[in-house]
Amino acid sequence: MKDMTASLMHAPLFRADDPQTTNRWRTADDRVMGGESVAHMDWQHSGMEQGVCLRGDVSLANRGGFIQIKWPVTAGDLVNIDGYTGLYIHAMGNGEAYNLHLRTRWLWLPWQSYRQTFHAEPQPRYHYFPFDAFEPYKTDTPFAPRQLKTIAVVAIGRAFTADVCVREMGFYSRLGDTTD
C-alpha cells in the first residue's frame, strides 16, 4: 500500500499531544431520545492508544443505536478551509466500522448529517475523507465546508461494543493542488 501521507499537507485541528486542542471533545448517545446506548470518552496519554477514545455499547433498544464523540468547529478553524481537499483522522480501534459525521450550520434536525464510513483497525493509521465524498443523510442541502459546525466519530446502526481512539484530526490538501 502506497504511503499517501508524503503527498499530503496536514493542518491539524486536534492532536493528542497538544493540550490546547484536547478540551473541545464532547460525548453524546441515544439516551437523549430514549435509547439505551452508553458512550464513554476516555483519554489515553501514553502508548499506542494515545488520544481521545470513544468507548461504550451501542444498543438498538427503544429505537436507539448510536454513541459519538464530537468536535465543535469554530470560525477560526475555518479560516483557510477553501484550500483543503477534506478531513483526515489518525485513528485505531477494535476493527469495527465507524462513521465520520459532519454537520453544518444549515442543518436543523439532529439526525441530518453528511457521512463517510471507516474501519478502525488495531494499528493506528490515517483515514482520508474528501469533502466531495460525504454522503448527505436525510437532507437535500449540499455540503458546504465553510458552514461546518461539528465533526463526530460515531458508532451507529447495529448493536456492538465500540472502542476507537483518535490521535489526530484535521484538514488535508494534496500537494500541488490548486483551488480556483
UniProtKB/TrEMBL annotation:
<feature type="domain" description="NADH:ubiquinone oxidoreductase intermediate-associated protein 30">
    <location>
        <begin position="17"/>
        <end position="153"/>
    </location>
</feature>
<dbReference type="InterPro" id="IPR013857">
    <property type="entry name" value="NADH-UbQ_OxRdtase-assoc_prot30"/>
</dbReference>
<comment type="similarity">
    <text>Belongs to the CIA30 family.</text>
</comment>
<dbReference type="Pfam" id="PF08547">
    <property type="entry name" value="CIA30"/>
</dbReference>
<dbReference type="InterPro" id="IPR039131">
    <property type="entry name" value="NDUFAF1"/>
</dbReference>
<keyword id="KW-0830">Ubiquinone</keyword>
<protein>
    <submittedName>
        <fullName>NADH:ubiquinone oxidoreductase complex I intermediate-associated protein 30</fullName>
    </submittedName>
</protein>
<dbReference type="InterPro" id="IPR008979">
    <property type="entry name" value="Galactose-bd-like_sf"/>
</dbReference>
